[in-house]
Amino acid sequence: MGKRWLVLLLLCLTAVLGRGAEEIVTVNAPAAEIPAETKYIALTFDDGPRMGTTDRLLDGLKERGASATFFLVGERVAENRQLVERMAAEGHQIGNHTWSHVRLQGAGEATIRQEIRKTQETLEQLVGKGDYWLRPPYGQMDEKERSYVSVPMVQWSVDPRDWEKRDVQKVKKAVLAAAKPNVIILMHDIYPTSVDAALEIVDALEEQGYIFVTVKELLALNGITPQPGVLYRSGKG
Ligand code: NI
Asked: Is residue 14 part of a domain?
């Protein structure tokens, strides 16, 4: 849990001084407390929550002191409210993955707005007011369509195709081969193999000195102020 405090401290310093976190580490931090090279990385999970897999993932992340970002399907939220409350209580970022997992590209303005708003309202009722960032299902949206979105949007820079592979070692290998600081990894917490792979990935990368943060934290640590309707693929923008 010491790592979480370090992340929070760096975020505070970044906010107060308005500079990049790395600069602050160099200037102000006692060398003994902060690793020479701090590597931040973000795990993101789509299509949940799902009892039987998401709960096991939350247990594992807690044991490892790792934070993640969950893009939830609105219609799954009510029946899994305990899981969503846990995500919020345990410091994970909660995002919007539309109400019914529709392809927003080409869906039309009314559908786009409704799919986002319904999920937003459900999340606000359950875990409070907030800007629940959007991950559009299948990733793509046209420029005009993005203008209907009033929150930042999150894509990814590492996609192990876990939903297709359904194989712990293959998924783990794909992520570890592509892992580097500031990447955003796409996975799905509705498959048991993905949960197992994710926890093995956290173990392997923490061993290499990585710290798992939310997407919001990853951008803040890189001095990025997220803008509504803009798609972010990594901690570098
Ligand atoms: Ni999805």
From this structure: no
Please report which confidence band the pLDDT of residue 10 belongs to, taking 50, 70 and 90 as the band edges: low
191-225 confidence digits (pLDDT tens): 999 999 999 999 999 999 999 999 999 999 999 99
Return all residues near 197 (Cβ < 8 A) that are at least 6 apart: 160, 162, 168, 169, 171, 172, 175, 187
20 domain-assigned: no
Domain membership flag for residue 180: yes
* Cα 187 to averaged position of ligand 1 atoms, centre (Å): 9
How many domains does the chain contain in total?
1
CATH (domain of 114): 3.20.20.370
For residue 79, the CA-to-ligand 1 centroid distance in Å is 18
- Kindly give the distance from the C-alpha atom of residue 34 to the centroid of ligand 1, in angstroms, as a whole number: 36
Query: Which residue range is the domain that position 169 belongs to?
Result: 40-232
**Active-site amino acid positions:** 46, 188
The model's pTM: 0.88
Residue 80 lies in a domain: yes
| Per-residue pLDDT at 189 | 98
Residues constituting the chain:
237
